[in-house]
Design brief:
The protein is α/β, with parallel strands linked by helices. It has helices at 10-25, 31-36, 58-68, 97-127, 146-155, 173-179, 182-192, 206-214, 227-237, 254-258, 269-272, and strands spanning 42-49, 53-54, 73-76, 83-84, 89-96, 134-136, 169-171, 199-203, 219-223, 242-246, 264-266, 279-285.
Length: 287
């Protein structure tokens, strides 16, 4: 994947990095580096993967170093979306030694966290590659990091579900319960929404699926259905609506879910439970 296909707005990157650096530097800055490192010392370092995975978040790492040393150089040896093996260098950085050490943890936190999401997403994507199903994320993201985590999903080959409550209508089971039924909920949503707003409805049974299709739902979320039931749902829908499977889907079960014929498989785990990719920064003092 090229970064042009999954770019992050620079202002978003700068805001996230600024917030993280303020959190880490606190009220007095990096007192360890200030006490030990001469103010004019220079250093260079390489960031390398220690475990296999997929890289995401290089822009944030580079911004962290340059925020503390505007003259620092950050040379990427790979692009986001690249697969790495242990020992692979992903970037090299040089600049003021104090600045590099002060920015190191923020840079690696972003890079490791987002690369972990990209890595887990890629495992799901690879598991369903023999089908037409696409892996998509959810709103189960870290507060304040949603756009970054959804970017990481794209770097891993996944696609993005809605970014918030304001960009698509998703009628969940509680909406259905309060409004009095699937058809009534869809009717109200259609009366409210503009023509550019998609309407998706969650169903728990095949009977609800038939009701949703009759009411004109454009997308139907099939919640917690086993593969055999999902295959029945695909046959019933017969292409009248986009079908999304969701609910407790794991790496062990995702292939069977995809083989049912659904169009999308949504997973909260790829963002909220992805292990951090282990990356390290090895620094060498230049003088």
């Amino acid at each position: 994947m090229t970064e042009a296909l999954a770019a992050l707005p620079p202002l978003l990157v700068e805001e996230a990095v600024e917030r993280a650096l303020k959190e880490d530097l606190g009220r007095a800055g990096d007192i360890t580096s200030a006490a030990i490192i001469p103010p004019d010392a220079r250093a260079e370092a390489a960031i390398a993967a220690r475990t296999p995975g997929v890289i995401a978040g290089l822009a944030l790492a580079g911004t962290a170093f340059r925020r503390l040393d505007p003259s620092a150089t950050f040379d990427r040896t790979l692009t986001d979306g690249s697969r790495v093996t242990p020992g692979t260098a992903v970037a090299r950085v040089s600049g003021n030694a104090r600045a590099l050490l002060s920015a190191e943890r923020v840079a690696l936190n972003f890079l490791g966290h987002l690369s972990g999401i990209a890595t887990l997403t890629r495992r799901y994507v690879d598991a369903v590659a023999h089908t037409h199903a696409r892996i998509t994320c959810t709103r189960k993201t870290t507060p304040g990091l949603r756009a970054l985590e959804k970017y990481a999903v794209r770097c891993g080959g996944g696609s993005n579900h809605r970014f918030g409550l304001d960009d698509a209508i998703l009628i969940k089971d509680n909406h259905v319960a309060v409004s009095g039924g699937v058809a009534e909920a869809i009717r109200r949503a259609r009366a409210y929404a503009g023509h550019l707003v998609k309407i998706e409805v969650e169903v728990d049974t095949l009977a609800q699926l038939r009701e949703a299709l009759a009411a004109g739902a454009e997308v139907v979320l099939l919640d917690n259905m086993p593969p055999a039931t999902l295959a029945e749902a695909v046959a019933i829908a017969a292409g009248k609506a986009v079908l999304e499977a969701s609910g407790g889907i794991t790496l062990e079960t995702v292939a069977a879910v995809a083989e049912s014929g659904v169009d999308y498989i949504s997973s909260g785990a790829i963002t909220h439970s992805a292990p951090t990719l282990d990356l390290g920064l090895d620094i060498a003092v230049r003088g």
